[in-house]
Amino acid sequence: MDSVMERMSLARSASARTASSSSASLSTPVASPRPAVIGHRGAPVGAPENTLASFGRAVRDGADALECDVHLSADGHLVVMHDSSIDRTASPHGPLCGGDIADLTRAQLDTVELGGGERIPSLDDFLDACGGGAGRPVGAVVEVKAPAAARATALALRERFGAQPMPLPDGTPPAVIISFHPEALRTVRETAPEIPIGLLAAGVDDEVMQVLAELRAERVSVWIQTLEDGDADRAWAASGASLHVWTVNTPEHLDAALAAGVASITTDDPGWVVRERDGRAQPVG
């Protein structure tokens, strides 16, 4: 999430939003006094994004869950990287520093050097980090960047967690799949209905509410810059979905997220958000 093109698309969508006139069919959602903190591609303030170093840093900094992005390689492997190409994040001094992931094999991608000597993880590597390999078990939030990767991602999570996933110690599911693409989420729902799904959107307008209802989505993630009063109520009315925000990196955006009572906050600096969240929750006196 949060590429330049995605931000432009979200900004255009936000400018065209209209307030929903749908009436709530479910009870009003309860605001979360202690939202979960999700490391956006790990903790890229301290380590290269979407790398094992970044995921480990986020866990050490107290993140409750880790977010990653997945694509399919040319030979069908699930690859953890935000962009559809390696151009931006690959070291220019490595043996391979350009090309689309969909055109490269896993063996070729294994030769790519990222910052700090890191390599491109697989989805299994990411899930290992979430499962305790980075220090303690945390939730996995997997963003499907291309609809073609949706089925493989759902099957990989089912293989890892089973058709009846055991919740984490805090009661949350071990893995969630999110996407900007309703068709990708539809594929996940059909392939592995036990996996919670979340739609990424500029805000919760009538069109988004319709998609949430159709997919029976458990959550919706809204860009913090387009968050509006009433988004939580509209999401809940549509499908009982919880409201989440990304990417929160400033005090002003953190204030807005906490005031909205969101269920989770995705950030590039999970250590800072954890400290702020927990510090504000302490009683005064």
UniProtKB/TrEMBL annotation:
<feature type="compositionally biased region" description="Low complexity">
    <location>
        <begin position="10"/>
        <end position="33"/>
    </location>
</feature>
<dbReference type="InterPro" id="IPR017946">
    <property type="entry name" value="PLC-like_Pdiesterase_TIM-brl"/>
</dbReference>
<feature type="region of interest" description="Disordered">
    <location>
        <begin position="1"/>
        <end position="45"/>
    </location>
</feature>
<protein>
    <submittedName>
        <fullName>Glycerophosphodiester phosphodiesterase</fullName>
    </submittedName>
</protein>
<dbReference type="InterPro" id="IPR030395">
    <property type="entry name" value="GP_PDE_dom"/>
</dbReference>
<feature type="domain" description="GP-PDE">
    <location>
        <begin position="35"/>
        <end position="277"/>
    </location>
</feature>
<dbReference type="Pfam" id="PF03009">
    <property type="entry name" value="GDPD"/>
</dbReference>
